[in-house]
User: Fold this.
Amino acid sequence: MKARTRAAAILLTPFFLLFTAVMVLPIGYAVWLSLFTEKQSGLGFGGTETVFTGLDNYTAALGDRAFREGFGILLGYCLLYIPLLLAGALGLALLLDSALARARRFFQLALFLPHAVPGIIAALIWVYLYTPQLSPVVQAMEAGGVGFDFFSPEGTLPSVVNIALWEWLGYNMVIFYAALQAIDRSVLEAATVDGAGAWRIAFAVKIPLVKASLAMVGLFTVIGSLQLFTEPLILNKGTGSAVTSTWTPNMYAYTAAFDRNDYGLAAAASVLLALTAALLSFAVTRLTGRRKAGAARKEQTA
Assistant:
């Protein structure tokens, strides 16, 4: 028993050291930094000094309308992006898994390739495609009588959602496709023998069997959505779009740190965002856990 404990400790030690170095210490430093602020003495003519302010930075962040509106934008983004991503990725995976699908390898690669493009490059590509004077897409839309300003206040959120979908749809499709391929084929054959059609098999057999993958992708997507930064940052730079420098909480923290040099406020905003992500992750995990427990109880009673 002692030998097993010693072996487990040896194998786990590198993980905990790395976890502490890249997660625990940076989070601890951010919390510590959020409790201080820099002030100038001598009516602005003296040097700066670091002053302990307690929770003042948190109060300032929560009291800032721009920071609160950033969470509202994130909420709208999640309500639009997450259902489209899950439905689109699962739908594509079901199509590839169907018996009628052809050239599966080609379509898997074609759909996954956008994810291999770095986020900054993807955003720059779509900025080009959104710009009326440059984009063949916009020109074709205008020629067809469809006018839409991707940089307007109404069009900015759909524009960002479209970029994120282009980047992540194929990646999550591969996850769902792998889960579908892991389903026991005898289950599908039994459903076919019982007279179930393709639609019935997809919705009554396949989707219930990949609920664990749906929950995992949903959880990761929620966390990733709260970290929205790259796409709106590129849209903010010289495009004339409605995206401001504080459009999301991440952009608010970035602006506070590198434009205003207020590292305490930036750290407080980052900690608040991390707490929000942790609470949402906990809520999603508990929700999926309750559903699994309910399904298990139904199976036992049946």
About this structure: The first strand starts at residue 36 and ends at 40.
